[in-house]
Amino acid sequence: MAKNGLSNLIQLLDYSNFIRSETLIILLYITDYNSELQKIAAFEGIFDKLFKIILSEGSIDGTIIVQDCLHCIQNLLRYNSSNITFFREMGFVKNLTHTLLYSPDNLDSFSLQYWSEQKVVNAAIVIDIVRIIAGLGNRQGNLSILQSGLTQCLIDLSLSSNAPVTLKAQTLTALTAIFSTSPQNQQFFTQSQTQPILNSDAYAAGYLRLPPRLATISLIDIALNGESGDENRMVDDVDSLKGHNLMFQVAALSAFESLITSNDSLKLEIIASMSHTTNEVNYDGSITHTAGSLLLEALSNLPTPEVSLDGAFDSQKVFFASLVLSHVLRYSEDARAMARNIPFNPSEDTDEDETVSLLHGIFGNLITCSRERSAADARLREKEFSSINRTEEPEKQGNQENEEEEVKQIDIDWTRLTVSYLILLSVWVWDSPATVSDILKESSNLQVLIQPIKQSSGVDALIQGLCAFTFGAIYKFNTGPSEVSKKDLHSIIEKQIGVDNIIQSLARFRSDKRFCKIGSPDDALAYAETPQEDGWWFDWNYVEFFKGSFMAVQRSVISEEIEETTKVAPPLPQASSPLPESTDNTDHEKVVQEKDSQIETHKQRIEELKVKNANMEMEMERVNNELGEAKSKLQALWEQGSPEVAGLRGDLAEGVKREETLRAELDKLNNELETLKQKEGEHKSASGELTTKIEILENEVKSNKEEVLRLKEQNDGLKSTNERDTNEIQSTKNTNETLQKENEHLKTQLEKHIESEKEHEDLLILLEDMSTKRSNDKNRMKQAGLEVSEDEGDEDDDE
Amino acid sequence: MDEDIGWKYILKYCIIGDSGVGKSCILVRFTDNNFYNTTTATLGVEFGSRIITLNNKEKVKVQCWDTAGSERFKSITRSYFRGAAGCLLVYSLSSRDSFNNLESWLNDIRKYADDNLTVLLVANKADIPYSDREVSIEEGENWARERELDFIKVSAKTGDRVDEAFDRSARIILEKLNKGAFQPKANKTSEAVLKIENSKNISSCC
């Protein structure tokens, strides 16, 4: 690596002439692949310089220089998590908001601006950069996007601006990435207001700003209807809107999925708003929709065959409504349960019959669909036949072909409708025994699914596969109490449909081009962008759901044995049994949950019994009335003395008997009600006990933890003292040793000393001896007459 | 992120030293106040940042580049020496080799980095018992004193004195800055300024 090469190159960006543009182009190549070079570029402060250029060139209004700068930033961040962290933590996310020329003060000019081709390109790169940052799945990153106002910017750009549809669609995919890991962003979105803008020459200003509505509603509206308004937008090139509109719808759908999939409260909110009465009628007669009513309207309105002949109904809308609702229902049994209570018909029609629920209504629509499909099929064949016969009449042929196309289109439309409903149903029944038993209440429902599986030809592979999948799912999850037992379904599979047929249908579905071409989340959007002949049929989420689930269905269909259906009958003896002491918190919680669900079922039963009770009472009254009438008649007859008396008497006796049995039944029911109530009370108290126990246990755990912490601290303290002590001991030992040595040394010295002293003494003694000897000798010498000097004698004395 | 507001300088740091001495752990302890027992060897360079307050008033943003220790990344990691304001030169108390290699690291720094670079010698893994130590504290202290470097003993595992390492070096950098050692945010382009900008490592916040 050349020394400082890259850094010198980056410095060249400070020029403001052609050198800068050339440098940019070189940097574009350098930063494309090598992540180490990308990091060094970031280290050398390239982001600062690039944003400075972008700003000086007019942000997204700028020329291709801006585009190059943005491309360079895109290169530096893509697949480089370290640089993304750098970008985020150094606060560059905010620069993106500025680059889009967005600020809360200029909302009006932001939502209505002129979009040149270059500007669209520039903005698209900025949005892709946002997607790269958010796509990392980094919560902090998505939080910084929210805090820098970028989320608001994207919402305004995609839902209340006059930006081109393609750009809006891209913005929605960026939002998809942002929502996927960030509840805060989800919440921010659901609380946002949007003001969609319709572009049309029909309005004096060239556009119409719709009244504000919640962002969620706008999003669903786009998913269902695409871009409202016509193609005359304020752009240089008019998009070929048909395809891009689909892309916009798909983008909205995926953004919605990302928004809702982990957001249970939003799911329930939307389901709750799914009723025909929640629409508000405005003063000018237009209707303000709620999120739910938009969906419900799309799902419940089935075109009449006459209308469909004109080709004027929108199967696409139903299709997207189904996908949207399936995203709402997926992963949430609560949402499924709530959705089962949605009425299918607008409330005005309900007087004649009991209301049909949405679930059953959809089955009704499926029946219509299958009828219309075969009708369209028949018409098509008829047309083909007639065209063969009339080849001699060329002037009519063109006409004929047009008609043929039309009929084909109708056929496809009906197929699409069928597929829509099946997608919704398959998600609805999945893992939801309650939904399954609701469906099985109506035996005709099953027939709609069975027919296409058995049909050997003339059925679209998608319909066949989805029918098999849905039927299999119903079979798999038919574990609750229902009208048709699992055993019955099993025999239907064995005798009517055939296991092989189901497996074949599933296999054919999986290998169908329309299904298997969606191999990754990006594919769905890509195919929507470039519409193909066979159309757009699945979003990634459903494909993924199907791929993850069909094996389970297949396995359960193949297996010979019918898994024992777990009876939902109340396990009463268990409820009153004492609780094992050793269970831990989670077990307790589980038990509590169980009890809760039991209480719930008991409550339901009590409700049912109450209703039954009321019915019984009513009937009793009726019987009493009849009885009274009969009695009075009898009286009259008695008075007349006619022969009818005997018969009437019999009637009377029968009536009395019936009354008696009814009374007895009523008593029985009352008793049962009483016991159930008691049981419920027991359960409640038991669950209360459990909660307190859990609390106690939690407290204990807490105190234990605290103690452990305290002990740890003590331990640490002790350790350190211990260390200190050992050190001290070591040093003491050392001194000790030196002392000992000294001691020894001293001892030897002492010994030596003692020895020399002894010698000294010996010498003294010797001297003494000598001196006495000498004095003796002197004396002797004196005595002998020899001269002896006195001095010496003195000397001797001294000694 | 309230703390994001008000920082005055960005200080570029790099962490260098032999592989396995705990450079990345020091960074993670500094930015996330966390410790992972199992980490993989850093490839190339990783980035982390945090805002610290000096002397109870001045806020600076520390931009920290954690480099790979292994030999094969040296050519890459050298690019980060130049342009850094602070450098943590790390060795491990449990590895004599990492201590012996300090000399060659310092030579690299002297060769490639600015003269104004503030180097702090960091002895990591202070949490390990004395019996496992291959290098004594005194040796490190002496080595640093001989080369006029600051010395600090830290433990990324317990978090002991990691923040202080950054605080202390940041304070030294700021002192140098106040004495005019760095040229914050050069003016516009001209040949002379470009040179100064070459050695620019502190930029004022926008």
From TrEMBL, chain A:
Q: Name one GO cellular component term.
A: ER to Golgi transport vesicle membrane
Q: Where is the composition biased (Polar residues)?
A: 728-738
Renumbered to this chain, the Acidic residues biased-composition regions fall at 788-799
According to the entry, every stretch annotated as the Uso1/p115-like vesicle tethering protein C-terminal domain falls at: 668-799
Q: Does the keyword Protein biosynthesis apply?
A: no
Record keywords? Coiled coil, Golgi apparatus
Q: Where in the cell does this protein reside? A: Golgi apparatus
Pfam families for this protein: Uso1_p115_C, Uso1_p115_head
Annotated GO biological processes are: endoplasmic reticulum to Golgi vesicle-mediated transport; Golgi vesicle docking; intracellular protein transport; vesicle fusion with Golgi apparatus
| Stretch list, region Disordered | 385-407, 565-599, 714-740, 769-799
Q: Where is the composition biased (Basic and acidic residues)?
A: 385-398, 585-599, 714-727, 770-780
Q: Does the keyword rRNA-binding apply?
A: no
Principal localization?
Golgi
Could you tell me which SUPFAM superfamilies the record lists for this protein? ARM repeat
InterPro entries attached here?
ARM-like, ARM-type_fold, Uso1_p115_C, Vesicle_P115, Vesicle_Uso1_P115_head
Where the record annotates domain Vesicle tethering protein Uso1/P115-like head, the positions are: 184-557
Q: Which domain of life is it from?
A: Eukaryota
What name does this protein carry?
Vesicle tethering protein Uso1/P115-like head domain-containing protein
Give the source species: Wallemia mellicola (strain ATCC MYA-4683 / CBS 633.66)
UniProtKB/TrEMBL annotation, chain B:
- PROSITE patterns reported in the protein's UniProt record: RAB, RAS
**Superkingdom of the source species:** Eukaryota
A single GO molecular function, which one?
GTP binding
Keyword Signal in record: no
The record's listing under Pfam families reads: Ras
One cellular component term (GO) for this entry is:
endomembrane system
Locations listed in the record: Endomembrane system
The alphabetized UniProt keywords are: Membrane, Nucleotide-binding
| InterPro entries assigned to the protein according to its UniProt record, in alphabetical order | P-loop_NTPase (IPR027417), Rab_GTPases_membrane_traffic (IPR050209), Small_GTP-bd (IPR005225), Small_GTPase (IPR001806)
As given in the record, the signal peptide range reads none
Instruction: Give the family this protein belongs to, as stated in its UniProt record.
Output: Belongs to the small GTPase superfamily. Rab family.
Q: Please give the name of this protein.
A: Intermediate compartment protein
